[in-house]
């Protein structure tokens, strides 16, 4: 099965590498606008195949979308990342034009494609793809909650001083520093609520660290992170290609679910061969409902800056 990754930069290349390493897809096509860049990344990655033991064929192209024809899944990572001190929302001006243009090219050559949107501000970019691609809503998935939940689990394990495989948790709502909603009420260690191990202050501290997880890394690295984002995307691609039906929080178009409509926000979804196979309705506390609504309002304000 063919998977296209647009943007051969930090996140795109890392995503292609993880997909190949997991060996579930026959072909990955990397696309970039920078002359020779995707070709170079693809060649370098292919030279790891005999070392890392994968059979996935990785190719690269400078903007020739005919090479992406017949893709089952396409990942959009093209665009600029944030620099220290920037919010994801500040990227909208440049990234909206790129995402719209890339989407048109992808759909032209792969009308049945499932698109995973990664470029920031992700919830708004996913909304843009809905408004401009003509694709059914189950075939547009924004990736944010998968990464934010992984960061939440990292912080949970750190606070509990336990292995990450002991903990479980989800982050929903917006993929932004203020709009993320780590669901402490549902977080567990081996099925036991974390509230049995951590007082409220410790829970709030780790939730806040989760929310600024991206900004913390951007400050350390000078640009935004790529390993965990790449791994999170590859997990979603695998759930589609292998029809795993994993439950993952994804930014999807809401039509009344969680009290919101005409907006893309992170909610738990079943991800399988058809894309978003189901939006899962879970109970939220009153405080969580309020935070979800506040996040929706902020995303709606950013969406208002879009020009179609
Ligand atoms: N949703 C998430 O959880 C998440 C996580 C990390 C990064 N991001 C976002 O992903 C995007 C990429 O981040 P990065 O660190 O890989 O950046 P990067 O600069 O390393 O890579 C971006 C690549 O996109 C390419 N590009 C630009 N315009 C293009 C076009 N029109 N067609 C094809 N390629 C084009 C660039 O040449 C570059 O190689 C950023 O917007 C970043 O904010 C999102």
Automatic annotation (TrEMBL):
Record-annotated Lactate/malate dehydrogenase N-terminal domain positions: 1-142
Organism: Halpernia humi
Source organism, top-level taxon: Bacteria
Family under the similarity heading: Belongs to the LDH/MDH superfamily.
UniProt-annotated binding residues for substrate: 82, 88, 120, 151
SUPFAM superfamilies, A to Z: LDH C-terminal domain-like, NAD(P)-binding Rossmann-fold domains
One of the GO BP terms on file: lactate metabolic process
Active-site residues, Swiss-Prot/TrEMBL: 175 (proton acceptor)
PROSITE patterns registered for this protein in UniProt: PROKAR_LIPOPROTEIN
Residues the entry annotates as binding NAD(+): 7-12, 32, 95, 118-120
Name of the protein in its database record: Malate dehydrogenase (NAD)
Keyword NAD: yes
Annotated InterPro entries: L-lactate/malate_DH (IPR001557), Lactate/malate_DH_C (IPR022383), Lactate/malate_DH_N (IPR001236), Lactate_DH/Glyco_Ohase_4_C (IPR015955), Malate_DH_type3 (IPR011275), NAD(P)-bd_dom_sf (IPR036291)
Keywords: NAD, Oxidoreductase, Tricarboxylic acid cycle
Lactate/malate dehydrogenase C-terminal domain residues: 147-299
């Amino acid at each position: 099965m063919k998977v296209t990754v647009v943007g051969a930069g930090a996140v795109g290349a890392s995503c292609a590498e993880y997909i190949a390493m997991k060996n579930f897809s026959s072909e990955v096509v990397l696309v970039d606008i920078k002359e020779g860049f995707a070709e170079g990344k693809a060649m370098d990655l292919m030279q790891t195949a005999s070392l890392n033991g994968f059979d996935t064929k990785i190719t690269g192209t400078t903007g020739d979308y005919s090479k992406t024809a017949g893709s089952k899944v396409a990942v959009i990572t093209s665009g600029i990342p944030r620099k220290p001190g920037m919010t994801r929302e500040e990227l909208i001006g440049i990234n909206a034009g790129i995402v719209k243009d890339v989407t048109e090219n992808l759909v032209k050559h792969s009308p049945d494609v499932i698109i995973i949107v990664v470029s920031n501000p992700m919830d708004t970019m996913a909304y843009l793809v809905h408004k401009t691609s003509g694709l059914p809503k189950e075939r547009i998935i924004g990736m944010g909650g998968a990464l934010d939940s992984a960061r939440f689990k990292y912080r949970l394990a750190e606070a509990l001083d336990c292995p990450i495989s002991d903990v479980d948790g989800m982050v929903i709502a917006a993929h932004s520093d203020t709009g993320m909603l780590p669901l402490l009420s549902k977080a567990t260690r081996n099925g036991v609520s974390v509230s049995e191990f951590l007082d409220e202050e410790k829970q709030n501290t780790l939730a806040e660290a989760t929310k600024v997880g991206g900004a913390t890394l951007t400050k350390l690295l000078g640009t935004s992170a790529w390993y965990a984002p790449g791994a999170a995307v590859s997990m979603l691609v695998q759930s589609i290609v292998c029809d795993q039906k994993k439950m993952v929080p994804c930014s999807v178009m809401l039509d009344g679910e969680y009290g919101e409509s005409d907006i893309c926000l992170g909610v738990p979804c079943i991800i399988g061969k058809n894309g978003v196979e189901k939006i899962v309705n879970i109970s939220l506390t009153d405080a969580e409902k309020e935070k979800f609504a506040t996040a929706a309002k902020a995303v709606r304000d950013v969406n208002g800056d879009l020009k179609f």
